[in-house]
Write a structure and sequence with these properties.
Its EC number is 6.3.4.2. The chain is an alpha/beta fold and about 550 residues long. It contains 20 helices and 19 strands. It folds into two domains: about 230 residues, Rossmann fold, CATH 3.40.50; about 260 residues, Rossmann fold (3-Layer(aba) Sandwich).
């Protein structure tokens, strides 16, 4: 096993996650099996209770792990499936050590940071590095480890000491460190912070310049151009070709095509955390993947849902009208997941406008639940309809809390992780977008659900629940008759979107917003990445009509 530790200095948020993901991508393109671990020095057990304004989105894994958004970068770049133990926190380490102490595993010894905490860190990394993350279930050969925060932070010190010991335990030829540092350009001044954090003990061959690029997808190409593969081959004695293969060629093609896009498509993202784009990191990536797949430049119009409400019209009319102008001028509307009552009425008004104006719409998690509320109020004439999350006394509880929800504890109590959704009809747009499959498996994160007892009232009016859970008790997918694309999903499809394999619900939104959805469905959902046309496989001579259309386009 080869270990590559990525650390950062001078400032936090310097780009360690992108560097770690890019290094992993390069090595995977050379034929190696690569895994990744993110270390967060905070004392929280996981990211589940974080505010999106403080740490960005909470990324959810197949096993229900609520983790740092950097694990989303790892999965998207490397096209792997990680587990909650790939995100290591100070809280997890101390919890495991204290549990051992309570069981008497230390035989009465004084439990200390060194050696007990540092040993636990090393054991965790070595154990998790060998867990398969690819579909072929092969044990990884390389583990890329990102240490969050900056070198010098007090909370990082046990981890720094653990890896100081670790390099001797696994031997020099199996361990190396990448340090990411800011190099500000200040006239006639030396850059002391970068020298200090790296101690200056480097040859010129070990210094890589990572300047700003047009797209994060160009970072692996930038590193590869500067000889990263050759360095790793020598430093870690890797049995690989020095030139990355097919996978990186796809990244180059994708990056080049991204830079040449001319047509534009705009999506209004209506949410409550719009001042901090990392709050919707995976949502934005899923939109970008889909826009690139149909050869359109993406414009995201961030709309604070509270600005759409009547109260804002009274207090700040300019902000109110600007928000509605952005919403009305967008080609499509997306209402993502969220928690709390603030801004929910604005989201409902945005959904109502999308429904009435036949504007392409996608609601995710809370976005789907609020679509149910909007339809109940305006089409079923249940004026008081609401979610019990926001109004426990509502006369029409169209969204209710789930039986297993534990209101006494916040962390880890939601319906989390990968769950199966069964399509109940063949006449479903989303089913066709997924490839006409009987079921899909997507990741969830919610405490509330659509009230199944009221299902019939909605379906009689053309508001169909086309996807349900395995037991048929939970409503998972909604579609509206007589609308080009009005779709809601209880799950979070953005978590499994990939640059070369965009998420079907998001792809459907972009296709509808660009006016291409009817043609795409009519042609059988084929994919041609080279030309940005969407087909499920390459046309061949057995489909002469499609081949003729393909060549013409």
């Amino acid at each position: 096993m080869k270990y590559i530790l990525v650390t950062g200095g001078v400032i936090s948020g310097i780009g360690k996650g992108i560097i770690a993901s890019s290094v992993g991508t390069i090595l995977k393109s050379c034929g190696l099996h690569v895994t990744a671990i993110k270390i967060d020095p905070y004392i929280n057990i996981d990211a589940g209770t974080f505010s999106p304004y403080e740490h960005g989105e909470v990324f959810v894994l197949d096993d229900g792990g609520e983790v740092d958004l950097d694990l989303g970068n790892y999965e998207r770049f490397l096209d792997i499936r990680l587990t909650k133990d790939n995100n290591l926190t100070t809280g997890k380490i101390y919890q495991s050590v204290i549990n051992k102490e309570r069981r008497g595993d230390y035989l009465g010894k004084t439990v200390q940071v060194v050696p007990h905490i540092t040993d636990a860190i090393q054991e965790w990394v070595m154990r998790q590095a060998r867990v398969p993350v690819d579909d072929d279930d092969v044990e990884p050969q390389v583990c890329v480890i990102e240490l969050g925060g900056t070198v010098g932070d007090i909370e990082s010190m046990p981890f720094i000491e653990a890896f100081r010991q670790f390099q001797f335990k696994v031997k020099r030829e199996n361990f190396c460190n990448i340090h990411v540092s800011l190099v500000p350009q200040v006239r006639s001044r030396q850059m002391k912070p970068g020298q200090n954090v790296s101690e200056g003990h480097l040859s010129s061959l070990q210094v890589i310049c990572v300047h700003d690029v047009s797209s994060i997808y160009r970072v692996p190409l930038l590193l590869e151009d500067q000889g990263v593969v050759g360095y790793f081959c020598c430093r870690l004695n890797l049995p690989i070709e020095t030139r990355p293969r097919k996978m990186l060629a796809k990244w180059k093609e994708m990056s080049d095509r991204s830079d040449r896009l001319l047509e534009q498509c705009s999506i209004a993202l209506v949410g409550k955390y719009t001042k901090f784009s990392d709050s919707y990191a995976s949502v934005i990536k899923a939109l970008e993947h889909s826009a690139l797949a149909i050869s359109h430049k993406l414009e995201v119009k961030y709309v604070d849902s509270a600005d759409l409400e009547a109260g804002t019209l009274q207090e700040e009319p300019v902000k109110y009208h600007e928000a509605w102008q952005k919403l009305c001028s967008a080609d499509g509307i997306l209402v993502p997941g969220g928690f709390g009552v603030r801004g929910t009425e604005g989201k409902i008004q945005a959904i109502s406008w999308a429904r009435k104006q036949k504007k392409p719409f996608l609601g995710v998690c809370l976005g789907m639940q609020l679509a149910v509320c909007e339809f109940a109020r305006n089409m079923l004439d249940w004026k008081d309809a609401n979610s019990t999350e926001f109004d426990a006394e509502t006369k029409y509880p169209v969204v209710i809390d789930m039986p297993e929800h534990n209101p006494g504890q916040m962390g880890g109590t939601m319906r989390l992780g990968k769950r199966r959704t069964i399509f109940k009809t063949k006449n479903s747009i989303l089913r066709k977008l997924y490839g006409d499959v009987d079921y899909v498996e997507e990741r969830h994160r919610h405490r509330f659900e659509v009230n199944p007892e009221l299902k019939q009232h909605f379906e009689e009016k053309g508001f169909r629940f086309v996807g349900q859970d395995v037991e048929g008790e939970r409503m998972e997918v909604i579609e509206l008759d007589d609308h080009l694309y009005f779709v809601g999903v209880q799950y979070h499809p953005e978590f499994t979107s990939r640059p070369i394999k965009p998420s079907p619900p998001y792809l459907g939104l972009l296709l509808a917003a660009a006016g291409r959805l009817p043609g795409y469905l009519q042609e059988g959902c084929w994919l041609s990445p080279r030309y940005g046309l969407m087909f499920s496989e390459r046309p061949d001579s057995s489909h002469p009509e499609l081949l003729k259309t393909f060549k013409k386009k």
